[in-house]
Amino acid sequence: MERTGPGLPEDMEALSRQASALRVALERSAENTEGMVAALGSFDRRVSAIEASVRPIQVRSQAMTMAHENIDRTIENAEATLAQLGIVRRAEAVILRGPHENLESFLEAVDLLKGVAHFFSSNKNFKCCEGVLNQVNNLLTMSALKIEEEFRQLMGAYSKPIEPDRLFGYLPKPLLASKGDSGAVGEQTSAIYRNPTLIPSGILPLLNDIARQLVKDGNQQSCYKIYRDARGSALELSLRKLGIEKLSKDDIQRMQLVALRVNIETWTQIMQITVKILLAGERKNCDQIFDGVIFNKDQCFAELAGSSVMALLSFGDTVAKSIRSHDNLFALLQMYGVMHELQSEVEVIFQGKFCSEMREAALNLTKSLAQAAQETLVDLEKAVEKNSSKTIMQNGGVHPIAIEVINYVKSLFDYQSTMEILFQQSETGSGAESHLAGVIMKIMQNLQSNLNEKSKQYKDPALSHIFLMNNLHCMVLSIRRSQAKDILGDDWIQRHRKIVQQNANQYKRVAWASILQTLSVRGTGGTGSSPSDVSSTGVSRSMIKERFKSFNMQFEELHAKQSQWTVPDQELRDNLRLAIAEVLLPAYRSFINRFGSLIQRGKNPHKYIKHSPEALDQLLGQFFQGQQVGEQKQ
Question: Measured between alpha carbons, how far is 355 from 370 in angstroms, rounded to an integer?
Fold first, then answer.
Protein backbone atom coordinates (compact mmCIF):
# COMPACT_ATOMS: atom_id res chain seq x y z
CA MET A 1 0.00 0.00 0.00
CA GLU A 2 1.39 3.37 -0.90
CA ARG A 3 2.08 5.74 1.93
CA THR A 4 0.90 9.32 1.27
CA GLY A 5 0.11 12.48 3.11
CA PRO A 6 1.73 13.91 6.03
CA GLY A 7 4.01 10.86 6.77
CA LEU A 8 6.59 11.67 4.05
CA PRO A 9 8.60 14.36 5.82
CA GLU A 10 9.24 12.12 8.79
CA ASP A 11 10.74 9.48 6.60
CA MET A 12 13.05 11.98 4.91
CA GLU A 13 14.37 13.13 8.22
CA ALA A 14 15.10 9.64 9.28
CA LEU A 15 17.04 9.02 6.07
CA SER A 16 18.96 12.20 6.53
CA ARG A 17 19.97 11.24 10.03
CA GLN A 18 21.16 7.80 8.82
CA ALA A 19 23.20 9.37 6.04
CA SER A 20 24.88 11.73 8.49
CA ALA A 21 25.74 8.82 10.78
CA LEU A 22 27.20 6.84 7.92
CA ARG A 23 29.36 9.76 6.83
CA VAL A 24 30.75 10.14 10.35
CA ALA A 25 31.53 6.37 10.42
CA LEU A 26 33.35 6.50 7.11
CA GLU A 27 35.46 9.47 8.17
CA ARG A 28 36.42 7.66 11.34
CA SER A 29 37.40 4.45 9.32
CA ALA A 30 39.60 6.47 7.00
CA GLU A 31 41.44 7.91 9.96
CA ASN A 32 41.97 4.39 11.32
CA THR A 33 43.32 3.14 7.96
CA GLU A 34 45.79 5.99 7.73
CA GLY A 35 46.93 5.13 11.21
CA MET A 36 47.48 1.45 10.31
CA VAL A 37 49.41 2.32 7.18
CA ALA A 38 51.58 4.67 9.16
CA ALA A 39 52.20 2.00 11.79
CA LEU A 40 53.10 -0.70 9.16
CA GLY A 41 55.47 1.64 7.42
CA SER A 42 57.18 2.34 10.68
CA PHE A 43 57.55 -1.47 11.37
CA ASP A 44 59.00 -2.11 7.93
CA ARG A 45 61.56 0.59 8.46
CA ARG A 46 62.57 -0.96 11.77
CA VAL A 47 62.85 -4.52 10.19
CA SER A 48 65.02 -3.22 7.34
CA ALA A 49 67.28 -1.57 9.88
CA ILE A 50 67.60 -4.86 11.81
CA GLU A 51 68.37 -6.80 8.60
CA ALA A 52 71.01 -4.30 7.64
CA SER A 53 72.66 -4.70 11.01
CA VAL A 54 72.51 -8.61 10.91
CA ARG A 55 73.70 -9.14 7.30
CA PRO A 56 77.45 -8.81 7.99
CA ILE A 57 77.17 -11.37 10.75
CA GLN A 58 75.50 -13.91 8.36
CA VAL A 59 78.19 -13.46 5.72
CA ARG A 60 80.91 -14.10 8.24
CA SER A 61 79.07 -17.24 9.47
CA GLN A 62 78.66 -18.70 5.97
CA ALA A 63 82.32 -18.11 5.21
CA MET A 64 83.30 -19.96 8.37
CA THR A 65 81.04 -22.92 7.44
CA MET A 66 82.50 -23.18 3.95
CA ALA A 67 85.99 -23.00 5.36
CA HIS A 68 85.28 -25.89 7.73
CA GLU A 69 83.78 -27.93 4.90
CA ASN A 70 86.85 -27.36 2.73
CA ILE A 71 89.13 -28.34 5.56
CA ASP A 72 87.16 -31.58 6.16
CA ARG A 73 87.17 -32.36 2.47
CA THR A 74 90.88 -31.76 2.23
CA ILE A 75 91.53 -34.02 5.21
CA GLU A 76 89.38 -36.77 3.67
CA ASN A 77 91.16 -36.49 0.35
CA ALA A 78 94.52 -36.56 2.06
CA GLU A 79 93.53 -39.66 3.99
CA ALA A 80 92.22 -41.31 0.78
CA THR A 81 95.42 -40.41 -1.03
CA LEU A 82 97.57 -41.79 1.77
CA ALA A 83 95.49 -45.00 1.73
CA GLN A 84 95.99 -45.36 -2.03
CA LEU A 85 99.72 -44.71 -1.65
CA GLY A 86 99.82 -47.46 0.97
CA ILE A 87 98.08 -49.83 -1.43
CA VAL A 88 100.61 -48.95 -4.13
CA ARG A 89 103.56 -49.62 -1.79
CA ARG A 90 102.21 -53.03 -0.76
CA ALA A 91 101.22 -54.01 -4.31
CA GLU A 92 104.57 -52.88 -5.65
CA ALA A 93 106.39 -55.29 -3.35
CA VAL A 94 104.21 -58.18 -4.58
CA ILE A 95 104.60 -57.21 -8.24
CA LEU A 96 108.37 -57.02 -7.92
CA ARG A 97 108.47 -60.54 -6.43
CA GLY A 98 106.52 -61.84 -9.42
CA PRO A 99 103.69 -64.37 -9.70
CA HIS A 100 105.75 -67.52 -9.30
CA GLU A 101 105.72 -67.68 -5.50
CA ASN A 102 102.07 -66.78 -4.96
CA LEU A 103 99.94 -66.30 -8.02
CA GLU A 104 96.81 -65.49 -6.06
CA SER A 105 98.51 -62.62 -4.18
CA PHE A 106 100.03 -61.39 -7.41
CA LEU A 107 96.66 -61.25 -9.16
CA GLU A 108 95.12 -59.51 -6.14
CA ALA A 109 97.91 -56.91 -6.27
CA VAL A 110 97.20 -56.33 -9.96
CA ASP A 111 93.52 -55.79 -9.22
CA LEU A 112 94.40 -53.36 -6.40
CA LEU A 113 96.69 -51.39 -8.69
CA LYS A 114 93.96 -51.18 -11.28
CA GLY A 115 91.69 -49.81 -8.57
CA VAL A 116 94.27 -47.18 -7.64
CA ALA A 117 94.67 -46.17 -11.27
CA HIS A 118 90.93 -45.80 -11.59
CA PHE A 119 90.82 -43.79 -8.34
CA PHE A 120 93.31 -41.18 -9.54
CA SER A 121 92.30 -41.04 -13.20
CA SER A 122 88.58 -40.67 -12.53
CA ASN A 123 88.90 -37.94 -9.81
CA LYS A 124 89.73 -34.45 -11.10
CA ASN A 125 90.79 -33.31 -7.65
CA PHE A 126 93.95 -35.48 -7.82
CA LYS A 127 95.69 -34.01 -10.81
CA CYS A 128 98.58 -33.22 -8.55
CA CYS A 129 99.13 -37.00 -8.13
CA GLU A 130 100.00 -37.69 -11.76
CA GLY A 131 103.36 -39.03 -10.64
CA VAL A 132 101.63 -41.66 -8.54
CA LEU A 133 99.37 -42.55 -11.46
CA ASN A 134 102.40 -42.97 -13.72
CA GLN A 135 104.03 -45.21 -11.14
CA VAL A 136 100.90 -47.35 -10.94
CA ASN A 137 100.69 -47.67 -14.72
CA ASN A 138 104.35 -48.69 -14.88
CA LEU A 139 103.69 -51.38 -12.27
CA LEU A 140 100.71 -52.64 -14.24
CA THR A 141 102.84 -52.83 -17.36
CA MET A 142 105.45 -54.73 -15.40
CA SER A 143 102.83 -57.10 -14.00
CA ALA A 144 101.52 -57.84 -17.49
CA LEU A 145 105.04 -58.75 -18.65
CA LYS A 146 105.67 -60.89 -15.59
CA ILE A 147 102.36 -62.75 -15.89
CA GLU A 148 103.05 -63.37 -19.57
CA GLU A 149 106.50 -64.69 -18.76
CA GLU A 150 105.05 -66.91 -16.03
CA PHE A 151 102.56 -68.35 -18.54
CA ARG A 152 105.38 -68.95 -21.01
CA GLN A 153 107.54 -70.70 -18.40
CA LEU A 154 104.72 -72.88 -17.10
CA MET A 155 103.65 -73.89 -20.61
CA GLY A 156 107.25 -74.68 -21.49
CA ALA A 157 107.83 -76.67 -18.31
CA TYR A 158 104.69 -78.77 -18.74
CA SER A 159 104.73 -79.21 -22.52
CA LYS A 160 107.29 -81.98 -22.92
CA PRO A 161 106.81 -84.79 -25.46
CA ILE A 162 105.59 -88.12 -24.09
CA GLU A 163 107.86 -91.12 -24.57
CA PRO A 164 106.51 -93.95 -26.78
CA ASP A 165 106.57 -96.51 -23.95
CA ARG A 166 104.23 -94.34 -21.91
CA LEU A 167 101.91 -93.78 -24.85
CA PHE A 168 101.68 -97.48 -25.68
CA GLY A 169 101.02 -98.05 -21.99
CA TYR A 170 97.78 -96.10 -22.37
CA LEU A 171 96.51 -98.52 -25.04
CA PRO A 172 94.05 -101.23 -23.95
CA LYS A 173 95.70 -104.54 -23.10
CA PRO A 174 93.76 -106.52 -25.75
CA LEU A 175 95.10 -104.16 -28.41
CA LEU A 176 98.66 -104.49 -27.14
CA ALA A 177 98.31 -108.28 -27.04
CA SER A 178 97.21 -108.26 -30.66
CA LYS A 179 100.20 -106.29 -31.88
CA GLY A 180 101.28 -108.02 -35.07
CA ASP A 181 97.93 -109.78 -35.50
CA SER A 182 96.62 -108.46 -38.77
CA GLY A 183 93.01 -109.05 -37.87
CA ALA A 184 92.86 -107.53 -34.44
CA VAL A 185 93.39 -103.86 -35.07
CA GLY A 186 90.18 -102.17 -36.04
CA GLU A 187 88.05 -104.73 -34.19
CA GLN A 188 88.67 -103.23 -30.71
CA THR A 189 85.42 -101.31 -30.60
CA SER A 190 84.84 -101.91 -26.89
CA ALA A 191 88.38 -101.32 -25.70
CA ILE A 192 88.92 -98.84 -22.88
CA TYR A 193 91.69 -96.29 -23.30
CA ARG A 194 93.41 -94.78 -20.28
CA ASN A 195 93.56 -90.99 -20.15
CA PRO A 196 97.09 -89.59 -20.04
CA THR A 197 98.26 -86.71 -17.88
CA LEU A 198 99.50 -84.25 -20.46
CA ILE A 199 99.54 -81.40 -17.90
CA PRO A 200 99.33 -82.09 -14.14
CA SER A 201 95.85 -81.45 -12.78
CA GLY A 202 97.24 -79.12 -10.09
CA ILE A 203 98.71 -76.82 -12.74
CA LEU A 204 95.55 -76.43 -14.81
CA PRO A 205 93.82 -73.97 -12.40
CA LEU A 206 96.96 -71.82 -12.30
CA LEU A 207 97.09 -71.72 -16.08
CA ASN A 208 93.40 -70.87 -16.16
CA ASP A 209 93.93 -67.95 -13.75
CA ILE A 210 96.89 -66.67 -15.75
CA ALA A 211 95.00 -66.98 -19.03
CA ARG A 212 92.13 -64.99 -17.56
CA GLN A 213 94.56 -62.28 -16.44
CA LEU A 214 96.33 -62.16 -19.81
CA VAL A 215 93.02 -61.68 -21.58
CA LYS A 216 91.99 -59.02 -19.02
CA ASP A 217 95.25 -57.22 -19.74
CA GLY A 218 94.47 -57.30 -23.46
CA ASN A 219 97.23 -59.82 -24.21
CA GLN A 220 95.04 -62.37 -26.01
CA GLN A 221 97.49 -62.74 -28.89
CA SER A 222 100.42 -63.47 -26.59
CA CYS A 223 98.36 -65.99 -24.66
CA TYR A 224 97.23 -67.60 -27.92
CA LYS A 225 100.71 -67.85 -29.41
CA ILE A 226 102.39 -69.15 -26.25
CA TYR A 227 99.82 -71.90 -25.76
CA ARG A 228 99.66 -72.89 -29.43
CA ASP A 229 103.42 -73.07 -29.89
CA ALA A 230 104.10 -74.97 -26.65
CA ARG A 231 101.38 -77.60 -27.04
CA GLY A 232 101.82 -77.90 -30.80
CA SER A 233 105.53 -78.58 -30.41
CA ALA A 234 104.90 -81.19 -27.68
CA LEU A 235 102.35 -82.99 -29.87
CA GLU A 236 104.61 -82.96 -32.91
CA LEU A 237 107.61 -84.29 -30.95
CA SER A 238 105.50 -87.02 -29.34
CA LEU A 239 104.39 -88.24 -32.77
CA ARG A 240 107.92 -88.00 -34.14
CA LYS A 241 109.15 -90.22 -31.34
CA LEU A 242 106.47 -92.75 -32.29
CA GLY A 243 108.03 -92.96 -35.75
CA ILE A 244 105.55 -91.14 -37.94
CA GLU A 245 107.05 -89.99 -41.21
CA LYS A 246 105.73 -88.46 -44.39
CA LEU A 247 105.86 -90.83 -47.36
CA SER A 248 105.10 -90.05 -50.98
CA LYS A 249 103.12 -92.22 -53.38
CA ASP A 250 106.40 -93.34 -55.00
CA ASP A 251 107.86 -94.25 -51.59
CA ILE A 252 104.89 -96.47 -50.83
CA GLN A 253 104.84 -98.12 -54.25
CA ARG A 254 108.57 -98.92 -54.01
CA MET A 255 108.21 -100.31 -50.50
CA GLN A 256 108.43 -104.06 -49.98
CA LEU A 257 105.18 -105.71 -48.90
CA VAL A 258 106.50 -106.65 -45.46
CA ALA A 259 107.83 -103.14 -44.84
CA LEU A 260 104.57 -101.60 -46.02
CA ARG A 261 102.55 -103.79 -43.67
CA VAL A 262 104.82 -102.84 -40.77
CA ASN A 263 104.34 -99.16 -41.61
CA ILE A 264 100.57 -99.58 -41.82
CA GLU A 265 100.48 -101.52 -38.54
CA THR A 266 102.47 -98.71 -36.92
CA TRP A 267 100.18 -96.09 -38.49
CA THR A 268 97.01 -97.71 -37.16
CA GLN A 269 98.38 -97.74 -33.63
CA ILE A 270 99.71 -94.19 -33.89
CA MET A 271 96.34 -93.06 -35.26
CA GLN A 272 94.55 -94.50 -32.25
CA ILE A 273 97.09 -93.06 -29.83
CA THR A 274 96.85 -89.65 -31.51
CA VAL A 275 93.06 -89.38 -31.53
CA LYS A 276 92.01 -91.30 -28.43
CA ILE A 277 94.91 -90.29 -26.19
CA LEU A 278 96.87 -87.25 -27.35
CA LEU A 279 94.21 -85.16 -29.08
CA ALA A 280 91.52 -86.11 -26.58
CA GLY A 281 93.86 -84.95 -23.82
CA GLU A 282 94.80 -81.78 -25.68
CA ARG A 283 91.16 -80.87 -26.29
CA LYS A 284 90.32 -81.47 -22.62
CA ASN A 285 93.25 -79.36 -21.42
CA CYS A 286 92.42 -76.57 -23.85
CA ASP A 287 88.83 -76.48 -22.60
CA GLN A 288 89.93 -76.42 -18.95
CA ILE A 289 92.68 -73.84 -19.29
CA PHE A 290 90.48 -71.43 -21.22
CA ASP A 291 87.27 -72.14 -19.32
CA GLY A 292 85.45 -68.88 -18.68
CA VAL A 293 87.97 -66.96 -20.80
CA ILE A 294 86.83 -64.88 -23.75
CA PHE A 295 89.20 -66.64 -26.09
CA ASN A 296 88.94 -68.54 -29.40
CA LYS A 297 90.10 -71.88 -28.03
CA ASP A 298 88.74 -73.83 -31.03
CA GLN A 299 91.00 -71.94 -33.40
CA CYS A 300 93.94 -72.32 -31.04
CA PHE A 301 93.39 -76.08 -30.78
CA ALA A 302 93.00 -76.38 -34.56
CA GLU A 303 96.32 -74.62 -35.17
CA LEU A 304 98.29 -76.58 -32.56
CA ALA A 305 97.00 -79.94 -33.84
CA GLY A 306 96.64 -79.18 -37.54
CA SER A 307 100.06 -80.04 -38.96
CA SER A 308 100.44 -83.26 -36.94
CA VAL A 309 96.96 -84.51 -37.79
CA MET A 310 97.24 -83.69 -41.48
CA ALA A 311 100.61 -85.49 -41.68
CA LEU A 312 99.00 -88.63 -40.23
CA LEU A 313 96.01 -88.45 -42.54
CA SER A 314 98.29 -87.78 -45.49
CA PHE A 315 99.99 -91.16 -45.03
CA GLY A 316 96.64 -92.93 -44.96
CA ASP A 317 95.43 -91.03 -48.00
CA THR A 318 98.58 -91.88 -49.93
CA VAL A 319 98.18 -95.58 -49.10
CA ALA A 320 94.51 -95.53 -50.13
CA LYS A 321 95.40 -94.01 -53.50
CA SER A 322 98.58 -96.01 -54.13
CA ILE A 323 97.86 -99.70 -53.53
CA ARG A 324 95.27 -101.86 -55.24
CA SER A 325 96.95 -105.28 -55.00
CA HIS A 326 94.83 -107.91 -53.28
CA ASP A 327 97.87 -108.58 -51.09
CA ASN A 328 97.14 -105.23 -49.45
CA LEU A 329 93.39 -105.69 -48.95
CA PHE A 330 93.82 -106.60 -45.30
CA ALA A 331 95.94 -103.50 -44.74
CA LEU A 332 93.19 -101.37 -46.28
CA LEU A 333 90.54 -103.08 -44.15
CA GLN A 334 92.71 -102.60 -41.08
CA MET A 335 93.07 -98.89 -41.78
CA TYR A 336 89.38 -98.50 -42.63
CA GLY A 337 88.38 -100.27 -39.42
CA VAL A 338 90.50 -97.91 -37.35
CA MET A 339 89.20 -94.79 -39.10
CA HIS A 340 85.58 -95.91 -38.73
CA GLU A 341 86.15 -96.66 -35.05
CA LEU A 342 87.63 -93.20 -34.53
CA GLN A 343 84.83 -91.40 -36.37
CA SER A 344 82.80 -90.51 -33.28
CA GLU A 345 85.90 -89.18 -31.48
CA VAL A 346 86.87 -87.18 -34.56
CA GLU A 347 83.43 -85.51 -34.61
CA VAL A 348 83.78 -84.48 -30.95
CA ILE A 349 87.46 -83.48 -30.92
CA PHE A 350 87.34 -81.62 -34.23
CA GLN A 351 84.10 -79.77 -33.61
CA GLY A 352 83.66 -76.18 -34.76
CA LYS A 353 84.40 -74.35 -37.98
CA PHE A 354 88.14 -73.96 -37.29
CA CYS A 355 88.60 -77.77 -37.12
CA SER A 356 86.46 -78.41 -40.19
CA GLU A 357 89.47 -79.05 -42.45
CA MET A 358 90.78 -81.84 -40.21
CA ARG A 359 87.29 -83.24 -39.69
CA GLU A 360 86.62 -83.34 -43.44
CA ALA A 361 90.06 -84.80 -44.16
CA ALA A 362 89.43 -87.64 -41.70
CA LEU A 363 86.00 -88.32 -43.17
CA ASN A 364 87.38 -88.28 -46.72
CA LEU A 365 90.15 -90.69 -45.74
CA THR A 366 87.56 -93.12 -44.36
CA LYS A 367 85.65 -92.91 -47.65
CA SER A 368 88.84 -93.35 -49.71
CA LEU A 369 89.85 -96.43 -47.74
CA ALA A 370 86.35 -97.89 -48.13
CA GLN A 371 86.43 -97.31 -51.88
CA ALA A 372 89.93 -98.76 -52.19
CA ALA A 373 88.96 -101.87 -50.21
CA GLN A 374 85.82 -102.45 -52.29
CA GLU A 375 87.70 -102.00 -55.55
CA THR A 376 90.41 -104.39 -54.35
CA LEU A 377 87.76 -107.01 -53.57
CA VAL A 378 86.41 -106.71 -57.09
CA ASP A 379 89.95 -106.96 -58.47
CA LEU A 380 90.49 -110.07 -56.34
CA GLU A 381 87.42 -111.77 -57.81
CA LYS A 382 88.72 -111.10 -61.32
CA ALA A 383 92.29 -112.11 -60.44
CA VAL A 384 91.14 -115.48 -59.09
CA GLU A 385 89.11 -116.19 -62.20
CA LYS A 386 91.84 -115.10 -64.62
CA ASN A 387 94.88 -116.51 -62.79
CA SER A 388 97.13 -117.64 -65.61
CA SER A 389 99.72 -119.57 -63.65
CA LYS A 390 101.11 -122.42 -65.79
CA THR A 391 102.26 -124.36 -62.77
CA ILE A 392 101.21 -128.00 -63.10
CA MET A 393 101.03 -130.12 -59.99
CA GLN A 394 102.68 -133.26 -61.39
CA ASN A 395 101.40 -135.27 -58.46
CA GLY A 396 97.84 -133.95 -58.74
CA GLY A 397 98.14 -132.16 -55.41
CA VAL A 398 96.49 -128.98 -54.21
CA HIS A 399 97.47 -126.05 -56.40
CA PRO A 400 99.12 -123.02 -54.74
CA ILE A 401 96.35 -120.77 -56.07
CA ALA A 402 93.78 -122.88 -54.21
CA ILE A 403 95.74 -122.68 -50.96
CA GLU A 404 96.28 -118.95 -51.37
CA VAL A 405 92.64 -118.16 -52.12
CA ILE A 406 91.29 -120.42 -49.37
CA ASN A 407 93.60 -118.87 -46.80
CA TYR A 408 92.64 -115.46 -48.14
CA VAL A 409 88.94 -116.16 -47.69
CA LYS A 410 89.52 -117.51 -44.18
CA SER A 411 91.50 -114.37 -43.34
CA LEU A 412 88.64 -112.20 -44.53
CA PHE A 413 86.66 -113.39 -41.54
CA ASP A 414 89.19 -111.77 -39.21
CA TYR A 415 87.70 -108.56 -40.60
CA GLN A 416 84.10 -109.72 -40.79
CA SER A 417 82.67 -106.92 -38.64
CA THR A 418 84.76 -104.34 -40.53
CA MET A 419 83.58 -105.67 -43.88
CA GLU A 420 79.95 -105.68 -42.75
CA ILE A 421 80.33 -102.02 -41.75
CA LEU A 422 82.00 -101.37 -45.09
CA PHE A 423 79.09 -102.91 -46.98
CA GLN A 424 76.51 -101.18 -44.79
CA GLN A 425 77.87 -97.81 -45.89
CA SER A 426 77.18 -98.66 -49.53
CA GLU A 427 74.13 -100.91 -49.23
CA THR A 428 70.69 -99.72 -50.27
CA GLY A 429 68.87 -103.04 -50.54
CA SER A 430 70.22 -106.36 -49.33
CA GLY A 431 71.99 -106.62 -46.02
CA ALA A 432 75.73 -106.37 -45.45
CA GLU A 433 76.03 -110.02 -44.44
CA SER A 434 74.41 -111.20 -47.68
CA HIS A 435 76.79 -108.92 -49.59
CA LEU A 436 79.74 -110.53 -47.80
CA ALA A 437 78.36 -113.99 -48.60
CA GLY A 438 78.02 -112.99 -52.24
CA VAL A 439 81.62 -111.80 -52.39
CA ILE A 440 82.99 -114.99 -50.84
CA MET A 441 80.77 -117.22 -52.97
CA LYS A 442 81.92 -115.39 -56.09
CA ILE A 443 85.57 -115.83 -55.13
CA MET A 444 85.09 -119.55 -54.51
CA GLN A 445 83.15 -119.95 -57.75
CA ASN A 446 85.92 -118.21 -59.68
CA LEU A 447 88.50 -120.42 -58.00
CA GLN A 448 86.59 -123.52 -59.02
CA SER A 449 86.38 -122.29 -62.61
CA ASN A 450 90.10 -121.57 -62.63
CA LEU A 451 90.89 -125.05 -61.28
CA ASN A 452 88.68 -126.62 -63.94
CA GLU A 453 90.75 -124.84 -66.58
CA LYS A 454 94.00 -125.95 -64.97
CA SER A 455 92.82 -129.56 -64.86
CA LYS A 456 92.68 -129.53 -68.65
CA GLN A 457 96.48 -129.22 -68.75
CA TYR A 458 96.88 -132.87 -67.71
CA LYS A 459 97.35 -135.44 -70.48
CA ASP A 460 96.22 -138.22 -68.17
CA PRO A 461 92.47 -137.86 -67.52
CA ALA A 462 92.77 -139.87 -64.30
CA LEU A 463 95.30 -137.42 -62.89
CA SER A 464 93.04 -134.57 -63.97
CA HIS A 465 90.25 -135.97 -61.80
CA ILE A 466 92.66 -136.56 -58.88
CA PHE A 467 93.70 -132.91 -59.18
CA LEU A 468 90.11 -131.67 -59.10
CA MET A 469 89.17 -134.05 -56.31
CA ASN A 470 92.08 -132.89 -54.14
CA ASN A 471 91.51 -129.19 -54.72
CA LEU A 472 87.75 -129.25 -54.28
CA HIS A 473 88.09 -131.40 -51.18
CA CYS A 474 90.55 -128.86 -49.78
CA MET A 475 88.01 -126.10 -50.47
CA VAL A 476 85.18 -128.00 -48.79
CA LEU A 477 87.24 -129.00 -45.78
CA SER A 478 88.59 -125.48 -45.25
CA ILE A 479 85.16 -123.87 -45.53
CA ARG A 480 83.58 -126.45 -43.23
CA ARG A 481 86.19 -125.77 -40.54
CA SER A 482 86.00 -121.97 -40.78
CA GLN A 483 83.52 -119.19 -40.17
CA ALA A 484 82.83 -119.23 -43.89
CA LYS A 485 80.52 -122.19 -43.23
CA ASP A 486 78.03 -119.85 -41.57
CA ILE A 487 78.13 -117.55 -44.59
CA LEU A 488 78.10 -120.09 -47.45
CA GLY A 489 75.83 -122.55 -45.68
CA ASP A 490 75.49 -126.34 -45.56
CA ASP A 491 73.98 -126.46 -49.04
CA TRP A 492 77.21 -125.15 -50.55
CA ILE A 493 79.25 -127.71 -48.63
CA GLN A 494 77.01 -130.65 -49.58
CA ARG A 495 76.91 -129.59 -53.22
CA HIS A 496 80.69 -129.45 -53.46
CA ARG A 497 81.19 -132.70 -51.56
CA LYS A 498 79.15 -134.35 -54.30
CA ILE A 499 81.47 -132.82 -56.89
CA VAL A 500 84.45 -134.25 -54.98
CA GLN A 501 82.84 -137.68 -55.02
CA GLN A 502 82.00 -137.36 -58.71
CA ASN A 503 85.66 -136.74 -59.51
CA ALA A 504 86.70 -139.69 -57.35
CA ASN A 505 84.26 -141.91 -59.26
CA GLN A 506 85.46 -140.54 -62.58
CA TYR A 507 89.05 -141.30 -61.58
CA LYS A 508 88.18 -144.92 -60.75
CA ARG A 509 86.37 -145.36 -64.01
CA VAL A 510 89.12 -143.83 -66.16
CA ALA A 511 92.12 -145.30 -64.31
CA TRP A 512 90.86 -148.81 -63.51
CA ALA A 513 88.41 -149.71 -66.26
CA SER A 514 91.10 -151.21 -68.52
CA ILE A 515 92.78 -153.34 -65.84
CA LEU A 516 89.47 -154.58 -64.57
CA GLN A 517 88.69 -155.64 -68.12
CA THR A 518 91.66 -158.04 -68.01
CA LEU A 519 90.05 -159.81 -65.07
CA SER A 520 86.81 -160.29 -66.95
CA VAL A 521 85.72 -163.86 -67.77
CA ARG A 522 84.53 -162.72 -71.14
CA GLY A 523 86.93 -163.63 -73.91
CA THR A 524 88.77 -166.37 -72.05
CA GLY A 525 87.36 -169.18 -74.24
CA GLY A 526 89.56 -171.49 -76.38
CA THR A 527 88.21 -170.56 -79.79
CA GLY A 528 91.09 -170.61 -82.24
CA SER A 529 93.52 -172.23 -79.79
CA SER A 530 95.24 -175.57 -80.25
CA PRO A 531 93.56 -178.49 -78.50
CA SER A 532 96.49 -178.94 -76.10
CA ASP A 533 96.07 -175.28 -74.92
CA VAL A 534 92.41 -175.65 -74.02
CA SER A 535 91.44 -176.91 -70.61
CA SER A 536 88.64 -179.33 -69.92
CA THR A 537 86.47 -176.30 -69.19
CA GLY A 538 87.15 -174.87 -72.60
CA VAL A 539 89.36 -172.01 -71.33
CA SER A 540 92.46 -171.07 -73.31
CA ARG A 541 95.57 -171.32 -71.13
CA SER A 542 97.47 -168.96 -73.38
CA MET A 543 94.66 -166.43 -73.12
CA ILE A 544 94.77 -166.64 -69.32
CA LYS A 545 98.51 -166.13 -69.40
CA GLU A 546 98.06 -163.07 -71.56
CA ARG A 547 95.44 -161.77 -69.18
CA PHE A 548 97.77 -162.19 -66.19
CA LYS A 549 100.65 -160.59 -68.11
CA SER A 550 98.45 -157.67 -69.11
CA PHE A 551 97.19 -157.29 -65.57
CA ASN A 552 100.70 -157.33 -64.14
CA MET A 553 101.95 -154.84 -66.69
CA GLN A 554 99.04 -152.44 -66.17
CA PHE A 555 99.13 -152.70 -62.40
CA GLU A 556 102.86 -152.08 -62.26
CA GLU A 557 102.40 -149.10 -64.54
CA LEU A 558 99.57 -147.78 -62.36
CA HIS A 559 101.62 -148.40 -59.24
CA ALA A 560 104.65 -146.63 -60.70
CA LYS A 561 102.61 -143.59 -61.65
CA GLN A 562 100.05 -143.36 -58.91
CA SER A 563 102.44 -143.94 -56.04
CA GLN A 564 103.89 -140.61 -57.19
CA TRP A 565 100.48 -138.98 -57.17
CA THR A 566 99.24 -137.53 -53.93
CA VAL A 567 96.04 -137.30 -52.00
CA PRO A 568 97.10 -135.11 -49.07
CA ASP A 569 94.03 -135.70 -46.92
CA GLN A 570 94.46 -139.04 -45.15
CA GLU A 571 90.76 -139.79 -44.83
CA LEU A 572 90.18 -139.08 -48.50
CA ARG A 573 93.27 -141.13 -49.42
CA ASP A 574 92.18 -144.10 -47.34
CA ASN A 575 88.65 -143.95 -48.73
CA LEU A 576 89.95 -143.82 -52.29
CA ARG A 577 92.27 -146.81 -51.74
CA LEU A 578 89.44 -148.70 -50.12
CA ALA A 579 87.12 -147.93 -53.04
CA ILE A 580 89.76 -149.29 -55.46
CA ALA A 581 90.40 -152.35 -53.34
CA GLU A 582 86.69 -153.11 -53.05
CA VAL A 583 86.49 -153.36 -56.83
CA LEU A 584 89.93 -154.69 -57.74
CA LEU A 585 90.65 -157.33 -55.10
CA PRO A 586 87.40 -159.30 -55.37
CA ALA A 587 87.81 -159.37 -59.16
CA TYR A 588 91.47 -160.42 -58.89
CA ARG A 589 90.75 -163.04 -56.26
CA SER A 590 87.89 -164.46 -58.34
CA PHE A 591 90.08 -164.55 -61.45
CA ILE A 592 92.85 -166.41 -59.62
CA ASN A 593 90.44 -168.85 -58.03
CA ARG A 594 88.87 -169.54 -61.37
CA PHE A 595 91.91 -169.68 -63.64
CA GLY A 596 94.92 -169.88 -61.39
CA SER A 597 95.13 -173.66 -61.53
CA LEU A 598 95.76 -173.47 -65.26
CA ILE A 599 98.83 -171.37 -64.62
CA GLN A 600 99.98 -173.36 -61.61
CA ARG A 601 100.12 -176.57 -63.69
CA GLY A 602 102.28 -174.93 -66.29
CA LYS A 603 105.90 -173.74 -66.30
CA ASN A 604 107.01 -170.71 -64.27
CA PRO A 605 103.64 -169.90 -62.69
CA HIS A 606 105.16 -166.99 -60.68
CA LYS A 607 105.95 -165.31 -63.97
CA TYR A 608 102.22 -164.83 -64.46
CA ILE A 609 100.74 -164.80 -60.99
CA LYS A 610 103.14 -162.27 -59.49
CA HIS A 611 100.98 -160.98 -56.65
CA SER A 612 98.73 -162.60 -54.15
CA PRO A 613 95.56 -160.66 -53.32
CA GLU A 614 97.15 -159.76 -49.97
CA ALA A 615 100.31 -158.51 -51.66
CA LEU A 616 98.22 -156.57 -54.09
CA ASP A 617 96.39 -154.93 -51.18
CA GLN A 618 99.70 -153.90 -49.65
CA LEU A 619 100.82 -152.37 -52.94
CA LEU A 620 97.55 -150.42 -53.11
CA GLY A 621 98.57 -148.93 -49.77
CA GLN A 622 101.49 -147.26 -51.56
CA PHE A 623 99.24 -145.38 -53.96
CA PHE A 624 98.89 -141.61 -53.63
CA GLN A 625 101.90 -141.24 -51.33
CA GLY A 626 103.51 -138.59 -53.49
CA GLN A 627 106.86 -140.39 -53.37
CA GLN A 628 108.33 -138.18 -56.06
CA VAL A 629 106.62 -134.85 -55.56
CA GLY A 630 107.50 -132.35 -58.23
CA GLU A 631 106.23 -129.37 -60.09
CA GLN A 632 106.87 -128.58 -63.71
CA LYS A 633 106.37 -125.17 -65.24
CA GLN A 634 105.61 -124.99 -68.91
Answer: 23
